[in-house]
């Protein structure tokens, strides 16, 4: 058995693709054969042909065969793109970036291995259910992929824990700020209330007779002080 470094599952996938490619190739070859057969039945009906007639017949055959070959090459290229699309889509789900080496597509040694693989290992007598049943995509269980996926999960879990801790800190700060605001509002209300009581008491005190008498006495004392200052200034000037 040719060894391409694949596991059993991938080896089976290669066989499925080669079976598909062989069926498409056989169908296209039948079409080319039909081109020659149609030519024989429709154009080669005379016993002798001139050079111009033979040239015209070959030119027409060339156009048909060229069209069939070109169509097959284009279809093969497009089919390979769809195959790569499937592989890349699966790889991106696991955060992988696959790379291709175009030069390896012309490696004669590898091409010979593929040809030998098709001769020895590509068996057409596979059960019909294997041919018709579409295989389900199995998850990749290689160590590298599992490790990479586990790292990504751990990183996301760590980020999630950090966000939760930050959220708890912000919530605690918000609660403290609300409590401080509530205390400040209560203190302000108490202060405003007490100031209102002080102003009310002062207003009532100013309206009492005792306050008026004290104010009158204070005014007289101020006048006496002013008079004494004037007398002291006269005495100091005389001296």
Automatic annotation (TrEMBL):
Q: Does the keyword Coiled coil apply?
A: yes
GO cellular component terms given for this protein? cytoplasm; nucleus
Gene Ontology biological process terms, A to Z: negative regulation of smoothened signaling pathway
| Pfam families registered for this protein in UniProt | Leu_zip
The answer to keyword Ion transport applying to this record is no
Its annotated compartments are:
Cytoplasm
Alphabetized, the UniProt keywords read:
Coiled coil, Cytoplasm
**What InterPro entries does UniProt report for this protein, alphabetically?**
LZTFL1 (IPR026157)
Signal peptide from the UniProt entry: none
Source organism's superkingdom? Eukaryota
Coiled-coil annotation reads 146-238
Q: Which family does it belong to?
A: Belongs to the LZTFL1 family.
Say what the protein does: Regulates ciliary localization of the BBSome complex. Together with the BBSome complex, controls SMO ciliary trafficking and contributes to the sonic hedgehog (SHH) pathway regulation. May play a role in neurite outgrowth. May have tumor suppressor function.
Q: How does it assemble?
A: Self-associates. Interacts with BBS9; the interaction mediates the association of LZTL1 with the BBsome complex and regulates BBSome ciliary trafficking.
Q: What is this protein called?
A: Leucine zipper transcription factor-like protein 1
Organism field: Danio rerio (Zebrafish)
Q: Which gene encodes it?
A: lztfl1
